[in-house]
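Narrative summary of target 7.
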Amino acid sequence: MATSALEMQQNASRDSWTFDFSERRLQEIMQDIHARCLQTADEYGMPGNYVAGANIDGFRRVADAMLALGLI
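Modeled conformation, tokenized:
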């Protein structure tokens, strides 16, 4: 999914990125996801539980977006 998002971003801006640039961006995205999952799991008393961290963080992000848009 992250690779597809990078490709869409590149196409939308009509840029041509090098392989190294794309790999660097992908690595940054994956490191951020990893850190958010661990941090969220820790916050909710489930240290090291990547599944719980990912699910809770995903839920919070969707809920925050819905609040920002006035949907809830």
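The chain has a mean pLDDT of 92.
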